[in-house]
Specification:
Blueprint lengths: L2 H5 L4 E4 L4 H12 L5 E4 L5 H14 L7 E4 L2 E4 L3 H8 L2
Parallel strand pairs: 1-2
Antiparallel strand pairs: 1-3, 3-4
Length: 89
């Protein structure tokens, strides 16, 4: 799952659609022209949620949101300096 995105360093944002922190990170990415693959896990079916949680758990054992994955780097929460570093902004 997401092998192509990880290999190509396509940003993957795992978020909750109603989460204010997640919305701010989405806006930050948009404002900086970053095209990310966004997964609002709360909008998925139960089986899809389980798959996404398994993936997120590998990079963020606490499964907190937002979680941004860029290549082999995971940035948790609203760590804008970490996001900039991961994305070379």
């Amino acid at each position: 799952m997401y092998d192509h995105e990880i290999a190509s360093r396509t940003p993957l944002l795992f978020a909750i659609s109603t989460c204010p922190r997640c919305q701010r990170v989405k806006s930050f990415l948009k404002d900086h022209g970053v095209h990310a693959h966004i997964v609002d896990v709360d909008l998925l079916t139960l089986s899809e949620k389980r798959q996404q949680f398994e993936f997120v758990r590998r990079v963020n054992p606490e499964i907190s949101f937002p979680t941004l994955v860029v290549g082999d780097t995971a940035v948790l929460g609203e760590d804008y300096d970490g996001i900039k570093e991961a994305l070379n902004l």
